[in-house]
TrEMBL record:
Keywords: Heme, Iron, Metal-binding, Oxidoreductase, Periplasm, Peroxidase, Signal
One Pfam match: CCP_MauG
PTM summary: Binds 2 heme groups per subunit.
Source species of the chain: Myxococcus xanthus (strain DK1622)
Cellular component GO terms held in the UniProt record: periplasmic space
Cytochrome c domain segment(s): 223-382
Protein name (Swiss-Prot/TrEMBL): Di-haem cytochrome-c peroxidase
Binding residues annotated for heme c 1, in chain numbering: C82, C85, H86
């Protein structure tokens, strides 16, 4: 059941409201909601440091990562770089799928790389647990860059500055490196570069701060952000998953997005491969393979529940969302208006996706005004262009 609706009814009863049909609700925001609003704005200027990547924050690693990210010579076909699928203002493509080697299409919609280093998990199903190990997947993926360690080594060896920089950072020439160490290290410099792809400070942040001041002065309803924020928190329940300054809970949910592809199992199918992966954060390629990381991964194995993980995908950040159409892991929704209609209907029809929809996915009965206010709110989340 909708906890907010439930609470409004309980409150109406507690206040001795006579009619059951009484639609009166408490003024927005209440104290809990004010706290939620306070947690939404001002994403930190620097993404958190990744202790498992010793290249993180090193200018020299960022520079090498930058050129490698844009180098199609790392693909077997010679025509596809990371930037082929993560380009333009949104660092993604404007189509549902992206083109890899030999015209193959990616299995899913490429997420934006803006603010990617704030993420806790990578890929829609969470099958990578660090930004550096994520990079190995597109390099090896036959429908993306279709490379292997030999292709990558040949490229690093053929460009003199690559060899020099690699040697300076890792103390070994690419030619003398083992296959797996080479791939992990290339991932680490690419992650160092991607950590700089930050785009924050959106009109949204200013609006939320101003709205909080207005609410504290009892003037919430007069504020232009009132209806959008109220719908985001109350009737839309978006805040249940899109919370905190990155507007994500860093978790996985089945919200009922139509998908009959082989990857439709979502996080449930991705978990065991991640836990057994030779490149995960607890592996020998991690620069901080502490017991804590291994224990945490093992706990996931024992506590994983197919009832919640099957068909579950990662809650994406909503920052810069207006730059990254189309939407969802399938790219099925072309516009933000379509996304709102999807939520308003309570997700796609049961049977069109794997697993069970989470209980909060119910028809929302939004008015046209509320829908428009939500779209305007989402559009306000685009960050200022970085200097
Ligand atoms: C052919 C297109 C293509 C290429 C080339 C490509 N990617 Fe991607 N990228 C994708 C797709 C599609 C996804 C989502 C895959 C999934 O979730 O199953 C993705 C996901 C990601 C993610 C996860 C983002 C998130 O929010 O979870 C990162 C990081 C990333 N790519 C970086 C890279 C890097 C680095 C390279 C080069 C080594 C690269 N990509 C090459 C298409 C591509
Ligand atoms: C139960 C958790 C949950 C709730 C509630 C929720 N979302 Fe989401 N949201 C997700 C997940 C998970 C995805 C990705 C799903 C997928 O691709 O399969 C997503 C995707 C999106 C996207 C697409 C982003 C992109 O980059 O493709 C938008 C926009 C969005 N949500 C907005 C909203 C709005 C607006 C609301 C409230 C009306 C809302 N969400 C409520 C979890 C949630």
């Amino acid at each position: 059941m909708n906890p907010y609706r439930l609470r409004a009814v309980t409150l109406a009863l507690a206040l001795g409201g006579s009619g059951m049909a009484c639609e009166s609700e408490e003024p927005f925001p209440n104290l809990d909601e004010l706290d939620q609003l306070r947690s939404l704005h001002s994403l930190g200027r620097q993404p958190p440091k990744d202790s498992t990547n010793r290249m993180d924050g090193l200018a020299r690693a960022e520079a090498l990562g930058d050129v490698l990210f844009h180098d199609s010579g790392l693909s077997r076909c010679g025509t596809v770089s990371c930037a082929s699928c993560h380009g333009g203002e949104g660092l993604t493509v404007p189509t549902a799928k992206a083109k890899g080697c030999d015209g193959h299409l990616s299995e899913r919609n490429p997420p934006t790389l803006l603010n990617v280093a704030y993420n806790r998990w990578f890929m829609w199903d969470g099958r990578a647990d660090r930004l550096w190990n994520q990079a190995i997947l597109p390099l090896l993926n036959p429908v993306e860059m279709n490379a292997d360690a030999q292709v990558v080594r040949a490229r690093l060896t053929s460009v003199e500055s690559y060899t020099t920089e690699y040697q300076a950072l890792f103390g070994k020439a690419p030619a003398d490196e083992t296959d797996s160490a080479l791939l992990a290290n290339v991932g680490k410099v690419m992650a160092a570069y991607q950590r700089t792809l930050v785009r924050i400070d959106a009109p949204f942040d200013t609006d939320v701060r101003r709205f909080i001041t207005a609410a504290e002065a009892g003037q919430a309803e007069a504020d232009p952000a009132y209806l959008g924020l109220k719908t985001f928190l109350r009737k839309g329940q978006c805040i249940v998953c899109h919370k905190g300054p990155a507007l994500t809970d860093d978790l996985f949910h089945n919200i009922g997005v139509q998908d009959s592809s082989s990857g439709a199992g979502g996080q449930w199918s991705a978990l065991t491969p991640l836990l057994d992966w030779e490149f995960n954060a607890a592996s020998r390629h991690s620069d901080a393979p502490t017991g804590t990381i291994a224990t945490r991964l093992q706990t996931m194995r024992t506590q994983a529940d197919p009832a919640t993980l099957e068909g579950a995908f990662r809650t994406p950040s909503l920052r810069n969302v207006a730059l990254t159409a189309p939407y969802m892991h399938t790219g099925a929704q072309a516009t933000l208006e379509e996304v709102i209609d999807f939520y308003n209907e309570g997700g796609d029809a049961a049977g069109s996706f794997v697993g069970q929809k989470t209980v909060t996915m119910v028809p929302l009965e939004l008015t046209n005004e509320e829908k428009r206010a939500l779209v305007t709110l989402l559009q306000s989340m685009t960050g200022a262009t970085p200097p």
